User: Fold this.
Amino acid sequence: MPRVIIYSSFVLLLLLAVPPAIVAKIRSTPSEGRPIHIVQDMDYQSKFKTQTPNPLFADDRAMRQPVPGAVARGEVFDDPHFHEGTLDDGSWASEFPARIDVDLEFVERGKQRFGIYCAVCHGDAGYGDGIVNERAMTLMANADGPLQGTAWVQPKSVHAPEVAAQPVGQIFHSISKGIRNMAGYEAQIATEDRWAIVAYVRALQLSQNAPAGLRAEATR
Amino acid sequence: MSRFLFPKWSNLLLPGLIAAGAVMPLYAVFFVAYGFSPKTLDAGYQPVQPVPFSHALHAGQLGMDCRYCHNTVEDASHAAVPPTQTCMNCHTQIRPESPKLVEVQESYRTGKPIEWIRIHKLGDYSYFNHAAHVNRGVGCVSCHGRIDQMEVVYQSQPLSMGWCLDCHRNPEPHLRPVSEVTNMAYQPEFELTDTEREGLLAKYDIHPSENCSTCHR
Assistant:
């Protein structure tokens, strides 16, 4: 058999191994290339879904912003105690709103929400020593690259006497609207969950400053 | 004039061609199945985002809960990309002048959303509900992979119909207590026994449907 035929069939066999090798490479490494759909079916339809762009509007959003003054279902402002933590005379409410049952389940919900939204800065026990605070302190000490404008003030401990003395309505208001450097969380956390967090903060405050004999009384 | 005679080796050509004719279709079938599968074409998509946000830092090193930013996931079908305000909860004070945050600051000033590039995308004819899954003990990591270890997020699973059905037909190995859904390191197979996982099936009232209309509505 002529050499050329033997060699070219070897080359051909080697070439056959190239496409699977390329595929294996694609499968094993992330890449910037958009997913390719060979059979399109109706994968990409000309409709607008949640958080998609729409070039017809000046701000490019398919989801329109509500008209100023619009009230969403279930968000009627009918109870300043529940929505703002204030009583009719404008003073801070010192009780939880009547529509809320403060039971164990509610406090546990508050604990979970506190863990998600608050503990990152305020710490699991509320002393203002969360992981973001630690990170910010590291940056402030110039220990991890340039400052780039970092100006961090340690979050307030929920056990500080002036916070412990606040009525629940005031704590609720601070969570909702923000205070000093802290942003308001009313857009991020549902109203009822913010009250649950208040309940958990109260539980934390009690747990860290429990009067002598309280535990004995509870376990009696 | 001498007659042309086929050399003796040419007898090999016919069996050779038959062998190639038998193997090539197999090769083609294998190549299409392997090369055109969603595991090849869809998984691994890692676009460059307008802001070099690191999930490895925020969700991994800092251990922030997924829901701090993606806070609609328990109530809505869509796990929202957070508004710029969420970034600014911290970044008004932490490195506000960082060049990596230029786009974020710009968006915060103008109110124009940051144009994040969507990675995990199903066909427009399928309707996935995040709330239905995370409230019944399917962890984020099952579909999104170890986001907490990704400097730049990529799609780690094929998100194909067959892949969805794998779990809908046999959900137990992927179930965990609802309190652990955002725990990226939780491994149900080590931390729960089979009986406990089957218990979750009853506890969360899980009946994963295989009807077409479950997802294609």
Summary: Chain A touches chain B through 56 residues (CB under 8 Å).
